């Protein structure tokens, strides 16, 4: 899609300096911009690049005063970063809504209902008695089982698998390869050393505005529901076990693993590769450092923790810094022992 | 599916107290039960809920004596937990066997044989010369390559990918997105810094009663077989590298990574996110704490280990507890040094 | 496929000792060989097996002098290991090129171009305006979005998902379930505690000779490109976040996670389950121990590091060895304190 610089300035309530009739079709960083690109300058650290960029247009702030000649046309706005983000979002919207209609072949089972504005990619599958909302995009090869409910405007990318009875809200995004509703990992040990499978008959409930990363897995509950509350953002390759509940607006980076029945609070932030044992709860607002292992309930809200097992961040950092000099500490102790021994042997401790 | 309480009591060899003609259609926890649900009371810790539950029926033990009125009908059995598990399993069986027949389109290559009672979901693929047993369920978009063998009653969920020459036993469950038989990660360094691919020509052998979690990956052997013995239970997002062998009835939680050619014993239990280096062996019955890293062979059977690198659990716990107070230990040592120095300087060590 | 031992000897420039007219059809380890298999003996540690192997043929070196009778025919070559690898590679080539043509059904969007020698598996999908090179193999259920470019001789295994605008080079291998180009994990916190999605409009660029493991995920850049340079080898279940760049011939083992905008050098080697924070750079030739966490830029080339947070390997090993004996160190310190106190109390420090 091509737009004139003038059209974009109009969209952003900005003013053109230079040639407004040129067209742009792509967004780029200022240091990487080429002909036909539009970029922005928000941080004066990057000002040098505005004099050398090949981008056709640059969005700048009202306070920007050029020190040299600039080949790009400028669009002057109140806040260049906000304006550029607005452009990004408009662009994303156009991309999201470019896919419409039903490609062939697709499979739709009996009793399933599909709302208006659907995109159904080829080889996508919808089982029996599922309800798909309006403007949902189901990309190719996605699998939606029986009795699934999906809200409006939700994006289901290629090859996502959603097991029977899952419930997914409005405005969610589920990235390629994610698995929703696979069986929880429950096995009862038998006397002969083998394991008997504990049936997993619950489901997964995902509320509105949730984002699920590529190849992430969320298991169904044994009974009841594994619940992802509204606004939760989950990155790629994360494991959410059965009966977990994640509080609203919590952010979970890639490769976290949350074991069964743990309850995560609201507005928590988890770094990458964190592990959380089962059957504990994590208070609202907890911040967890990457690769930490949480082994017990966190009751106090808004703390930062780290380590395996995780404890208070500042204490952890102090322990870690001494871990690195453990060989020296060990030597200090041996020296002390030796010195004391020498002092005694040399008779420096006189008999009183 | 709906059953009367009387029908269920009959199935469980139980006795009805209350209205046996009511119908139930869902299993629920006692604290979450609603009309039409059946629940159970096994642990007297939960007794309070039996007086408030909205479930239509509750399974209780012979020794249960109500202290207040109960609105639910009761089914009295010898062991409520066992009876409820029996119900769960019956329910699971009905669910598993509800899918039958061949949806369209599917792809089946030349020379492949498919047993009776098959379910082949739409867009599933079977290559050439593969043999699929009886009552196998192949969910939509599953991929089964050439020369694959799959035993009876095995469930292959949506989007599972099984590479050529894999052998899978009876009564296995492979969850959505799992990859069986991808190339082992083998590359030979060349003089110019690049790597040459070492062909991976072996296969994966999975014995009977194995469960494989969603998006788990199991690589084929370089030559010979990567082997998963009978009864092994593997959770989601686990990586099993080439030429690994996992002994029977071993349980591996989510996000474990087992490097090439390692041999894992029988009846081991691995917590989540454990890593195991290549070319080692782990004795039968080893229990490994979450996030541990095992860097050398474990010879002694039935030990518990933890940490990175992993060592004996109790020792690990002691080390960890001191890790947390390292800053204090460091201070103690500095204090000792200072005190000894002061004592010497103050001349308290008299010349003998 | 069957070959006579004589044919294979000819291919390897070797000399037959024994019956050259026998046929072999499979490659096997010497200790596992059966009738119809060909094996090799390169390491005299395995010499015992040549006297008992059931393999029909064994490749041996010119310097090999049998001490007992051998039932297998021998193929005598200069370097048995090199010759066997050559056989493996020939075999792999035959396997790779056995798939040709277009299975039905497939989906190809408007404006897409596909080179000669293609294999398109059933249920594979190619969107609009994509360009696929020569001799590309696209296995069943693979998804290739719009405006994707794929070079010659690249293998795309079953169920791989490649998002719009991705660029993939020649001679690459992408294993089943890998996701290329999913949205970067970028969210801007809002005043009400919720997050606003930052549009991810960049792409992924994968250069020539790259290998990507099963179920690995590589996110697209926010703007610009996430870049995987030529010759990079990435194992299974690895997470590569937005705007990351990985230098040529770097090797990354399973379950690594590399956070956003980090720049990895050339010829690095990462053990399994390593985590790397965002916005740092790692010097060329860095070697990283399994399960390490890299929290800051590594400037010096060709160092080995380990630990969380990672530091120089030898220092790490020393710290780890003392970590294991922390309880003892703690006791030593307490003993020293006690002893000094006793000495003082006992008046052994005499008044000078």
From TrEMBL, chains A, B, C:
Signal peptide: none annotated. The active site is at residue 242. It catalyses: a UDP-3-O-[(3R)-3-hydroxyacyl]-alpha-D-glucosamine + a (3R)-hydroxyacyl-[ACP] = a UDP-2-N,3-O-bis[(3R)-3-hydroxyacyl]-alpha-D-glucosamine + holo-[ACP] + H(+). GO terms for molecular function: UDP-3-O-[(3R)-3-hydroxyacyl]-glucosamine N-acyltransferase activity. Its EC number is 2.3.1.191. Gene3D superfamilies: Hexapeptide repeat proteins, MurE/MurF, N-terminal domain. Pfam families: Hexapep, Hexapep_2, LpxD. Residues 22-89 form the UDP-3-O-[3-hydroxymyristoyl] glucosamine N-acyltransferase non-repeat region domain. It is an enzyme of class 2 (transferase). Keywords: Acyltransferase, Lipid A biosynthesis, Lipid biosynthesis, Lipid metabolism, Repeat, Transferase. InterPro entries: Hexapep, Hexapep_transf_CS, LpxD, Trimer_LpxA-like_sf, UDP_GlcNAc_AcTrfase_non-rep. Pathway: Bacterial outer membrane biogenesis; LPS lipid A biosynthesis. CDD domains: LbH_LpxD (cd03352). Homotrimer. Belongs to the transferase hexapeptide repeat family. LpxD subfamily. Catalyzes the N-acylation of UDP-3-O-acylglucosamine using 3-hydroxyacyl-ACP as the acyl donor. Is involved in the biosynthesis of lipid A, a phosphorylated glycolipid that anchors the lipopolysaccharide to the outer membrane of the cell. This is UDP-3-O-acylglucosamine N-acyltransferase. It comes from Emticicia soli.
